[in-house]
Specification:
alpha/beta; eight-stranded mixed β-sheet
């Protein structure tokens, strides 16, 4: 793996400055760029480690605090390890903040993130990739739909509410705007992304001729890629890395 440089930066948006983690190869060379969207627990050491691993594979990576309107990360204080006993109380605090991220806000913030990246000397010319985890998978799809001219590859892992019936803000309704290639690695037995939801999403992507591949990670729980939670699954995580790097390598 290539040596990397990572640091916290501020990204100007239309609603103030978003703190973010920025990581890239330490070689004074521009690289293809990935916008990495956090899970609901936010930008923290685990997300920074993931960004560094992606940077070590040859990418310039930005991990924005999408809850920046509520202050710098972590917006909700977190334990070092998130166990099942912690999850309910944390989710209850986080859900109202998540609910504020409308499609319009997500696309507007994404414009700021993409513009900031495009101006950086560490960023190569060309399209970008977007990867998202948990709620970040939704943000990744919305970003692809809102900025099809910029986004060439989208990956979503253990995403939730991606094709929620009756939700006018569900990203599957924007499938016709997506030109990127998609990879979605669903968690098994995920209440936030049921078999019916997965089927609904595949159907609309097929109908819109969106290049995509969806897989169910059998036996893996929602949150399987996060090593600082008890949902972590090492085998599923390595499978996710292989799929992500394959997607990015084909498109960036």
């Amino acid at each position: 793996m290539t040596a990397v440089l990572g640091r916290t930066v501020g990204v100007p948006t239309q609603d103030g400055t978003a703190d973010a983690y920025f990581s890239h190869p330490d070689d004074n060379t521009p690289h293809p760029t990935v916008l990495l969207y956090m899970d609901a627990f936010g930008v923290r050491p685990q997300l920074r480690k993931m960004a560094d691993r992606l940077a070590g594979a040859g990418y310039t990576v930005l991990v924005p605090n999408v809850f920046h309107r509520h202050g710098p990360a972590p917006v909700v204080p977190l334990p070092d390890f998130i166990a099942s006993a912690d999850r309910q109380a944390l989710v209850e605090r986080i859900l109202p903040i998540m609910g504020e991220l409308t499609q319009d806000l997500v696309v507007r913030d994404a414009e700021s993130y993409l513009a900031w990246l495009a101006a950086r000397p560490e960023t190569a010319d060309g399209p970008v990739g977007v990867s998202g985890y948990c709620m970040g998978a939704r943000l990744a799809l919305l970003t692809a739909a809102g900025h099809p001219e910029r986004v060439a590859a989208v990956a979503g892992f253990h995403g939730g509410r991606l094709a929620f019936d009756g939700d006018p803000e569900s990203p599957h309704l924007l499938a016709g705007r997506i030109t990127a290639e998609l990879y979605l690695g669903h968690a098994d037995h995920d209440r936030s992304m049921t078999p019916e939801d997965r089927e609904r999403l595949d159907k609309v992507l097929d109908a819109a001729d969106v290049r995509h591949r969806t897989e169910v990670y059998r036996g893996a729980e929602h949150g399987y890629s996060m090593a600082d939670t008890d949902a972590y699954d090492a085998d599923a995580t390595e499978r996710h890395w292989a799929a992500l790097l394959d997607l990015l390598g084909r498109n960036l």
